[in-house]
Amino acid sequence: RRGYKQVWRSNMSIREEPRVSTDYVGEDFTSVTFTPDLPRLGMVCLEDDIVSLMRRRAYDIAATTRGRCKVYLDGELLDVKSFEDYIGLFVGSEEFRFSEACNSRWEVGVSLTDGSGFQQVSFVNSIYTSRGGTHVNYVTDQVVTALLEDLAKQKGGTLTVKPQHVKSHLFIFVNCLIENPAFDSQTKETMTSKKERFGSTCELSAELLQAVRESGV
Fold first, then answer.
1. Structural domain boundaries, residue 195
2. Does residue 138 come out as left (phi exceeding 0), alpha (psi in the -120 to 50 range) or beta?
3. Which residues form the DNA topoisomerase type IIA subunit B domain (predicted)?
4. 100 and 208 in contact (C-beta within 8 Å)?
5. Do 71 and 96 belong to one domain?
6. What pLDDT does residue 94 have?
7. What are the DSSP E strand ranges found in 105-215?
8. How far apart are the first and last CA of the chain?
């Protein structure tokens, strides 16, 4: 079995020759290690907000790789084995936390917001979409529609509650795989692909929607 190691330096402008060993013993693995070039960044150390962002991204990777990747932070294995575990970091109470894997390409979660309006945490192909997008709308609309239909039945068809009123109480989580996703900018904060081009569908189960109805939203 062979081992391979290669190093890039100076903003990856300098590439060292690869080192290949023929006597490797152990499990197959891939490891990527980097050292920040602080002088190039005009820094003398990593500031607290940068460290916090890196820490957050470590948890994001653990959550979105669906258990296929062990993620260590400061030498410790992160106890996030699934997207459901990740949701639990945001919503501690299981009473108001509902999640499911619609299929191999979609994982979703629904909870109540903290009162500050609609909230979402979402990923497209493991890319953190901080402002959501059409994938979040796709899931949110299903939840809102189900709740409005239930309210209409309770009120005998007379309904003054608007979709936005319902949405403002929701906290939506989405982890999905999209074919050739389109974004609004280079930062990829918002996905703009039309749902017809997602390459898959995610129909929320009757069980999940019923659990949300009974949650008191």
1. 92-213
2. alpha
3. 100-197
4. yes
5. no
6. 74
7. 106-112, 119-124, 127-128, 170-176
8. 57
